[in-house]
Amino acid sequence: MDRTERLLTASTNGRPEPATVGQPAPAAAAGQPEPAAAADQPEPAAAAGPPAPAAAADPPVAGPAAAPVPEPTSTPADRPADDPRWARPALLGLLVATGVLYLWGLGASGWGNAFYSAAAQAGSESWTAFFYGSSDAANSITVDKTPASLWLMALSVRLFGLSSWSVLVPQALLGVASVGVLYATVRRWYGPAAGLLAGAVLALTPVATLMFRFNNPDALLVFLLLAAAYATVRAVETASTRWIALAGALVGFGFLTKMLQAFLVVPVFAGVYLLAAPTGLGRRIRQLLLAGLAVLVSAGWWVAIVELVPASARPYIGGSQGNSILELTLGYNGLGRITGDEVGSVGGGGRPGGGGPFSGQTGPLRMFDTEVGGQISWLLPAALILLVAGLWLAGRSARTDRRRAGLLLWGGWLLVTGLIFSFMSGIFHAYYTVALAPAVGALVGIGVTQLGRARTGPGRWRGYAATLTLAGTLAVTAWWSWRLLGRSPDWYPWLRPLVLATGLTTAVLLALLDAPVTKGFASCRAARGDANPLIDLSRGPRWARWASAGVLALGLGAGLGGPAAYAVQTAATPHTGSIPSAGPFVAGGFGRGGFPGGRVPGGAEFPGGGFPGFPGGAGPVPGGTNAGRNGAFPGFPGGQPPGLPDGGTGQDGGTGQDGGTGQDGGTGQDGGTGQDGGTGRDGGAGRGQRGGGMGGLLDAREPSAEMTALLKADADDYTWVAATVGSNNASSYQLATGEPVMPIGGFNGSDPSPTLAQFQRYVADGRIHWFLGGGGFRANGGSSASTEISAWVAETFTATTVDGVTVYDLSSGKQG
Hints:
Residues 144-298 form the Glycosyltransferase RgtA/B/C/D-like domain. One of its GO terms (molecular function) is pentosyltransferase activity. The chain is mostly helical. It contains 26 helices and seven strands. Among the domains are: 163-564, no CATH class; 705-813, no CATH class. It has helices at 3-8, 26-29, 87-103, 114-125, 127-132, 148-160, 164-190, 192-204, 206-211, 218-238, 241-258, 266-276, 281-308, 325-339, 373-376, 380-394, 402-423, 437-455, 460-485, 495-520, 542-571, 591-594, 705-712, 727-737, 756-764, 785-796; strands at 575-577, 690-692, 720-725, 741-744, 768-772, 799-802, 805-809. The strands form two sheets. It has a five-stranded mixed beta sheet with strand order 4-3-5-7-6, with helices on both faces. Strands 1-2 form a two-stranded parallel sheet. 60% of the residues are buried. The model is unreliable at 1-81, 348-353, 516-538 and 591-696 (pLDDT under 50).
């Protein structure tokens, strides 16, 4: 029986059907506004518990008048019987396929971002390091983020031991869970077909595939924001105080994951609740204030502890110049990202017109530019078109209309976050755009199904307008996919015309077949609770069923073909370093550190993460030298920043004029463009990995067995087996040895931790065994402590070379 029949027979239960439904009502499906009779009723003065469902104000259809009936504990959206039979198997298939995509060959990426992997290893050995998010188990300095994402990895390492799988699998599982939560959120108001399409778009977005196979904080942040969106949807349904408070708590925990980025959705979630919750305005405001308190408590408890604990009793707060988590929150990871005034950063604010060398140009088209476009923008035009179309279908709806509320929630998420990313002048990386992927997926799923319903709804011209909108959206998507694929012309060149031809052909067929298909399915114009809301393929003439199924399959293939191909390529390619990038080589992109031409074809790995790709193989500074190894920085004598020890030689003493770079004078190992100079299908590269880095600053190269054995000798006699400039340089040695390595100056080598006096005291106390040259680069202000320490070491101790790395034995400086 359909939903109308179930509603008419509800008298046997003694109570009416509650207003919170998992599928849109027939009136809503046809684009008519929902009645707001009970939704806008003011709250009772003496209400002592959660508000009743909106329909509770309506009289019961039948049943005993005197017998009180308890409120239903679940809504129809929670009941499996309301879903069509194909819904659960389809969801299971989607989740399994997502798991395969995110888990297959995951160990090939090694430590991923070694900066966070080393911190997870430290947290698995020291609860103090776990709590603060320290880079090393001896707690010299923290990472430059709040530590929630590290907690998950550190617990995994404690349980399963240190390996790339124990570090990366939690991220993949978060990806599968995110797809499931997005499905559940969209399904509640728009049905299972919309939820499945939304989940598939999220799973196949290239930057999502990248980040759910990588160990940056973004995976956990996306999951938490999706969970907060689900809680907001539940709160809007019944004006629930508990659900909106939970949404606030989840956003607050998002702050503990990636600081202020989590708050970008706060005005959107609050605005949607204030608009659409079915209760009085005063109660809505009080509930939002309570949710704000939940945000403050969830985010603030850890901040308060860090600020109250004396600095001498905790590690230095990485990324700050004053050892303050509040400074880090509001400066380097806060307003500095917007204005570009990030003291101690590398790259932010470095370009005329906004944006640093890692950022691209600011402006409304940033999400579509050479580097960012292939990460997120495949379905971005479609999402924007479908957002407008969905709001048009909602029309002059009641205040509590859920179709409109959902569109405002996901559309607000997309627009607010996307605009801030587009115009922020500070450090911005393309992978940040994974935060847009859930909103894009939701809008595509909602928009396609809403227009599909409108096609077979009442009103001839309204239905045809919906058809033309679907066809036009598909054509635009196919054209934009064609443009994006054209940025990698040597990567499966046949795919580009195939996607364009399929998309345009399907758009034309959709318009031509609409009349007979609509006629053939006139009997199912109203979306049934047990039928596909796009189109009921179980009815109508056989030819119409086959035609409709074919058009549907072609449309999905054309729309998702490009991003799916990018996603599979991303999953098949190892990624390491601090600036990963999805998809194949893009000419003129900003990969591997953000400089034009810097991305290696196919993402080949270069010794020490050097800077290939400048005109004529030049380094970033004329007169540059060898790209360096194990953390060397090209463009300076010896491949190292000014002031570091042994600044006169590079690996094998190789130097050059007019910007020559690369081991043996080439742009890669042995002068090739990839490992061993090989070439391959992905734009001409060999067996390399994708990633990004500026020598040891943003990349970490595994040390040799000789160096590892040297560091592990007598390790128990020292607090730190070694010290080196920059967290990424230190992380490679720490992961190889399993022993603490002090990262002087933190991530960028620009933090005043330790100072020269503190370092000298550590050496005198016999707490540091070795000092390792290379790594780090001070730019855009910041402390000069790392330069002072490097100079003091070079003047005081004797240098030796181990596997091309300059090392200093500090044990001779021990006093007493």
